[in-house]
UniProtKB/TrEMBL annotation:
One of its GO terms (molecular function) is hydrolase activity. InterPro entries: HAD-like_sf (IPR036412), HAD-SF_hydro_IA (IPR006439), HAD_sf (IPR023214), S-2-haloacid_dehalogenase (IPR051540). The keyword Lipoprotein does not apply. This is HAD family hydrolase. It comes from the Bacteria. It comes from Paenalkalicoccus suaedae. Keywords: Hydrolase. The keyword Repeat does not apply. Pfam families: Hydrolase.
């Protein structure tokens, strides 16, 4: 019996071109810190620190701690030198990026239906962004005020996709066995990899990401609307 649903956010509940979004995000962010650090140095440090964070396998340290250490080491800055400026960026500039997304009312309908069906609900977005940035995107998707049992953010998470431990930690947080979960996402590698620990999978069409390497079992697939219909009728992977 399935007890929990894990939903990816970007490209799944919140339709968007993730590559274009990240490109615009970095293009806007770098000039905001130019009075503190050379923009090119900043971006290189940002990308390298993110890579270090995504490779991390230490359960004792949060993604935030790993990123912060790697980023500051590469820029020679102290946290207090740049973090206040980044905080302002996320509060004032980041919300403007909503125009790069295509919110749909189906997201709230799907989450509400999952709640009515008695599922535990996790937003399994890759926790490489601060909580404030993730909650902005939950708000754009229209689900920030809906009943969510768990949301992965980098201040609290210790792993990222596609590490299997990322999915194991979510199941543990929800107090369910991985075999009782369905992972719902648009990424054939980072989301569908959850099948390796026994989770069922649903690939959402529309903004599918496929790197062409590493293939995993897809138990069900369809548009967000088709997902809603299957969830409503207890059919497909939800049977």
């Amino acid at each position: 019996m399935k007890k929990a649903l894990l939903f990816d956010l970007d490209g799944t509940l919140l339709p968007m071109d993730t590559h274009a979004f990240v490109e615009q995000y970095t293009r806007e962010l770098a000039p905001k810190v130019a009075h503190i650090v050379d923009p090119e140095t900043f971006l290189q440090a940002l990308f390298e620190a993110t890579a270090v964070m995504m490779k991390n396998t230490e359960a004792e340290r949060t993604n935030e701690a790993i990123f912060t250490e790697a980023f500051l080491a590469r820029t020679g800055l102290e946290k207090e030198d740049i973090w206040p400026t980044l905080d302002i960026f996320y509060e004032e500039t980041f919300p403007q990026f909503k125009t790069l997304t295509e919110p749909t009312s189906l997201a709230a309908k799907v989450i509400q239906k999952a709640y009515e069906k008695g599922y535990k609900i996790a937003i399994a977005t890759n926790p490489v962004f601060p909580k404030v940035a993730i909650w902005h995107r939950l708000k754009w998707a229209g689900i920030d005020k809906l009943p969510l049992d768990h949301v992965t953010v980098y201040e609290e998470s210790t792993f990222t996709k596609p590490h299997l431990t990322y999915y194991e930690m979510i199941a543990k947080e929800l107090d369910v066995d991985p075999s009782q979960c369905v992972m719902i996402g648009n990424d054939k590698q980072e989301d569908m990899v959850a099948e390796k620990i026994g989770m069922r999978t649903f690939l959402v069409h529309g903004n599918v990401i496929d790197r062409g390497t590493a293939t995993y079992q897809i138990d069900d697939e369809g548009t967000l609307e088709e997902l809603y219909e299957k969830l409503s009728t207890d059919s497909g992977v939800f049977a």
